[in-house]
Hints:
The complex is a heterodimer of chains A (148) and B (100). Helices cover 37% and strands 37% of the residues of chain A. With 148 residues, chain A is an alpha+beta fold. In chain A, strands 1, 2, 3, 4 and 5 form a five-stranded antiparallel beta sheet that branches. The longest helix of chain A is centred in the C-terminal third of the chain and has 19 residues, at 105-123. Chain B has a single domain (21-96), classed as Vaccinia Virus protein VP39 (Rossmann fold).
Amino acid sequence: MVHALEAVHRLLKPNGTLVDIRPHAEPSILEVAVGDQTLFAEPKREGDHEGVLDSDRAMDEILERKIFEVVRGRDFEFFSYGSTAAELREFWDRYNDYEDTPIEEEQLSFEDKVYAKADEVRKDSGKDAEVIVHERVRIARLKPVRSE
Amino acid sequence: MTVRLDPEGNETRALFEMEDFDGKQVLEIGSGDGRLTWLYADRAEHVTAVEPFEQSFEQAMKDLPPELEGSVEFQNMEFLDFAATSDGAKFGTAIFSWSL
């Protein structure tokens, strides 16, 4: 990851910009809601943030070495909506299919239970209920600060 | 119903707060199926979008809007391989798209 950031530095014009979009190293929240009313909200998965933490460490090193500097940044909320828990889960599983690291059995079992609980709440909450994955994401604008 | 992603536009708003893409040569790293690319590509002069996962790359190629053909170029490779074969300092903007 450090090498990737160094490569970006080389490929950017001196006055160029790096935009980094990354989820926080925390579990996404699985929610069930009807309109603005949240009926269920629990962490989707325990642990499993090593990839994001690796990215955080790589970025820290790059900032420490003054290869890039953060000009500004902020958090935003990213929501994905499905009509059932199964639909949403299948979508995200397919979307994240590229991940090399298999999900540990314990995490998978935890996730099975959370999705099952969410779907029970959804079924009891009428046809307008939606299942939502809620993620907190950070976005930052960075500038290259020196030539390598 | 199909899955809806960020219907509130929170990501789009944040992206445009961070960068003005008008007329820029953009490098997007980890472009996936092009979900983020489609948000800004019509503003950029040219987008080079690098995605190592073949399935996502193929989806992006399939979804490429006709009006962006010629200005968006997808590369199916690891970013470091792309970087190793690229001449330096030609991009005005680089984006790590949920991919660092």
